[in-house]
Fold Inosine-5'-monophosphate dehydrogenase.
Amino acid sequence: MYDIARSKRATKAFSFDDISMVPTRRTRGIDMVNLSWKIDAVSFDFPIVGAPMDSVMSPETVIQMGRLGGLGVLNLEGLWTRYEDPEPIFEELAAISDRYEATRLMQQVYAEPIKAELITARMQQIREAGVPVAGSLSPQNTREFANTVEKAGVDFFVIRGTTVSAEHVSEATEPLNLKEFIRKLEVPVIVGGCATYQSALHLMRAGSAGVLVGFGGGAAHTTRDVLGIEVPMASAISAVAEARRDYMDESGGRYVNLIADGSVGRSGDIAKAIACGADAVMVGSPLARAAEAPGKGWHWGSEAWHETLPRGERVHFDTVGSFEEVLVGPSHIPDGTMNLVGALRRSMASCGYTEVKEFQRIELVIR
Amino acid sequence: MYDIARSKRATKAFSFDDISMVPTRRTRGIDMVNLSWKIDAVSFDFPIVGAPMDSVMSPETVIQMGRLGGLGVLNLEGLWTRYEDPEPIFEELAAISDRYEATRLMQQVYAEPIKAELITARMQQIREAGVPVAGSLSPQNTREFANTVEKAGVDFFVIRGTTVSAEHVSEATEPLNLKEFIRKLEVPVIVGGCATYQSALHLMRAGSAGVLVGFGGGAAHTTRDVLGIEVPMASAISAVAEARRDYMDESGGRYVNLIADGSVGRSGDIAKAIACGADAVMVGSPLARAAEAPGKGWHWGSEAWHETLPRGERVHFDTVGSFEEVLVGPSHIPDGTMNLVGALRRSMASCGYTEVKEFQRIELVIR
Amino acid sequence: MYDIARSKRATKAFSFDDISMVPTRRTRGIDMVNLSWKIDAVSFDFPIVGAPMDSVMSPETVIQMGRLGGLGVLNLEGLWTRYEDPEPIFEELAAISDRYEATRLMQQVYAEPIKAELITARMQQIREAGVPVAGSLSPQNTREFANTVEKAGVDFFVIRGTTVSAEHVSEATEPLNLKEFIRKLEVPVIVGGCATYQSALHLMRAGSAGVLVGFGGGAAHTTRDVLGIEVPMASAISAVAEARRDYMDESGGRYVNLIADGSVGRSGDIAKAIACGADAVMVGSPLARAAEAPGKGWHWGSEAWHETLPRGERVHFDTVGSFEEVLVGPSHIPDGTMNLVGALRRSMASCGYTEVKEFQRIELVIR
Amino acid sequence: MYDIARSKRATKAFSFDDISMVPTRRTRGIDMVNLSWKIDAVSFDFPIVGAPMDSVMSPETVIQMGRLGGLGVLNLEGLWTRYEDPEPIFEELAAISDRYEATRLMQQVYAEPIKAELITARMQQIREAGVPVAGSLSPQNTREFANTVEKAGVDFFVIRGTTVSAEHVSEATEPLNLKEFIRKLEVPVIVGGCATYQSALHLMRAGSAGVLVGFGGGAAHTTRDVLGIEVPMASAISAVAEARRDYMDESGGRYVNLIADGSVGRSGDIAKAIACGADAVMVGSPLARAAEAPGKGWHWGSEAWHETLPRGERVHFDTVGSFEEVLVGPSHIPDGTMNLVGALRRSMASCGYTEVKEFQRIELVIR
């Protein structure tokens, strides 16, 4: 604890950039590393999740993500559920380089209403490809479209906002009672962002199968400048990991998955997120560097198109390789933007670990 | 406390950039947030005050500020009280881009004497528009023009300098006895800058209705380089908030408003200032980005034109929208420069607060 | 120890940039400074070792290093043992400025197999020049080529990888049993990188004559971004120096040399490495600035050409003078890139020290 | 104290940039501030000393400095004592912009021997102008030219090197016995740089009238990169101020003046140096911005021309005004480069101080 001045105190919080991992006295062959991740009844080959952002997750890339062994989540409030054919919109957006114009155009194209039938169609397309199906809604739209989503048949229902609490109070609209909602739903719910012990604990008590830790969209969001809100990720994940332990104890053994969501720009950050206690890591910008990324080099989150207070910025990334190369290699760029899975595997092996769960205990240093 | 070396010690102080806010486990609808602010007998819709700087506050923008629900303060030592028609001066200044030439020209145009009749005229113009009237003088000029200002009829008398103390000692000029001065005056006095517990406490004891915390003009002043003086804002506000509590106790309940003044560049800083304990926030540079700003894209404070030791720099800002858009939105730029009021509202809602006074207690982290 | 959050803690670690040396109350003439360094039976005029990186150590520069009084190490997995005449490859590489192309080309040219007869020839060439002979292999290739190297007749056998442990476990390939390997070998073994007390202690117990501290290739490697692994050098060296003391105690007096390997960019870093406890310092990038450097202005390490996960970047350095001028002066560039030996001598003299071993105890400050 | 790792510890040291001053609850009129400074029998109007660097102190500017009320020190090993007419050399140097060429040329022109008769002539020229006379030698040349200097008649004899100790040991040359030397000399001696309590205490015990704190030539020297030596100034001054107190006690009241020497780039740094405990401040780069500065926009120290290990860099500064304007104003540039004396006066007044000695006790914060 530091004194801001006299009676006002604050804790110091740490970002991924502030920390790094310290190898143990053992090393392991990369052949021995097991990256498999299981949430609810579904298993994945590696603990990397595609973030529900229009610039990276289309029905096609969700399917590709699934085929490679990971989980992709489609944003059910994005262009794919507002437009029968969003391709021209993507092209129009990609053609604009001015940041102010881009924000205005996003505000305009996202004003088009969400269509329930498109939600159904997109989910079905993914299901037919034989990969796990997951779609996300913001808390504001969950009530209206939850039925549609459930009927469409999903493996995971994701409720994702900048800050999602189990106790939202409003007079204008009847807020979502998260606990009741989750109890009624037949599918496992992943919910967040949250960033503190208390807020995560309440999301766990509401029955979530997984919680998203962080406020999402690292490179592309400006919540810090616009709202003054930020909890650096290393500390956020560590705090929520403690909530997971305490909740497991109070619930008599229910293990809630912790999915880091935000500020993951390089493969090293994925390893750090797990080192802080995450079970899996949701990535946005790393996938925006793939040739198949729908954003065509541009990356943005849902904060970017808010009608009166946009809090996200379109960011441009160079394309470094195919979707497959970005995820599972081989890499030909030595900066942590390619072969995310291979890098995690090697990071664990170099540090002497073979299991993700054990890797959460690795020693860290503050740089 | 840190050791600079052996017996010399110093406390660590924090700026807005060093801190951020941590959401609670609750969230609130933005419809539930109450931003109203009351000082003395006057109420405002939101706790944002236009800084008495020529580049942002003209009689016209003061009026606009009032109509939108805030408080604008006119600098009574600026171009509007030195020149019948200052418009050509503003144009001449805006045409110069060289920083050295600009300082010289400012030193020259501000050498023109202040005219009492123009003080009267400007105040009257604002009063006739039906909005709250506030004008500022430096401590050096307060004695000479106080009568004029009082007669002109103001709602708030602002005494503003880089560092204002309740105990100024000088042999060359008879210093202002602040306590006596305030007692005699019929209108409430807002006075500052100050930045420490002790200096604020003495300004409160002198009878001020509000104190300005900070040394003003964040982006545009260079007090730190020229004089070596600086107290980072988060710590300054927190220290003065403690003085407010103690003074309320010793005075038997008199609540002195704390107005943060300086280093507020983005909407997130406004929220942080309140989170540290401010009741309202005085803004300069955010308003310099408005199309109607008299500075025409340039921003400067009164330190900038000092005849022998200028301590402020003209700074250029891109225009982002109308005065109204900057203050109350809608925003189309996601960087904290538009919709200041909406951003504060959302920041509080996301953190789970509905009242400004409660928001002063929000948890902070050091980043 | 810092709290990352609640139960997750981390120590603060320091890099060379974080620290500096504090002179004592004495100064010494540079004539009195003794820089000689002895490891196993071989003595050197100064404790600076050329890093086994193709861009700086060729048979020719190894010989030059030896003649000037230092130790040069040839990379036995580099271009000189893959190609009879690697010169055209160096030229081809130097002609490429695009970083992506360069990585791809390196991946390609280093795919050529290592040839045992070239190992023998290169070692012989160096031996015939009458200077100490040292060659390095990675742990993966040590088993295959150790015999060849030993027969070729070397003074030091260097096993060098990013992270080398005494306990490597793998199922795919039978791992090297370091302890057994070192016991059988007739020549002294220098092994690393390592960065912690525990890992260094185990390398010492395995019988090494010297340990490499750090993960190598400061300027050129990206382990931090790709894997998230980093232990800042000042702390790494200090920790391993403690292991050296404790091992000397437990072994009844065996002194293992500590060779700092990585992040040494300027002559001041060499002094800092010793001040933290190193006996000698392995340098790469400083030598890449020499006119005779085989990399022709470019510098890279063995991480740079990994087939699926390159973790190093080619870096360009301006040539500042001859190999001799870079090492022993005279310097005509005042930035710590020339006269490395003279700078170390003067640093010690200015601080009041004449022996390297004593200089390890100099007072440091955190800047 | 921080752990670098386990048993290696280090204190944190602070630079001027790390700290700032906190105003008290009082302010003072600038008319009340007394800046006079007395060392030995000589009084000055303000505590600012011109650094003995060829780029700022010529016989002419030393005289100008004295007439304005300060103390200028001539470097007796510089171009003015090596060349009858150094003007063409200055012109030749100013015509070169390449940093490498400049170092080489400096190494060449400073190879010209120092001439005793020129020392005499320069000192006489200054004495005849009726201002205080002070010249500096490095420890290495003190023995040879001390007699010449003393006979030439100086008010202060300055011995200045990067690190000067009271106990220098060398076998090559008989070192200067500082204590004996000072006892024999008729004029007061100012000696440094030093940066720690112990080294300063020994210089005080050797009989110096003043000690130079710091390693000199902030902007222009690279001791930190080349040698790894640095003690940040705020901590260095604070530590030596403690030595001054303790020495005053042990000597029964002898007050040794502490002159900060290095890292003073802006007027705010002068105030900070005094706030840390300095009695006076030696400035280089601020004077290099004067139109009359002999360096013609370039600035360098004596480390820059070392024959085998130059440790200083020529730096270019924009000219901001006349020598007089830089020192005593008026200023027309608001960045701390003009009106150094006026800025110190105002800084003290704003903080509520009227005496330099009291200002040494002002409260500081770490930013």
Q: What stands out?
A: The mean pLDDT of chain A is 95.
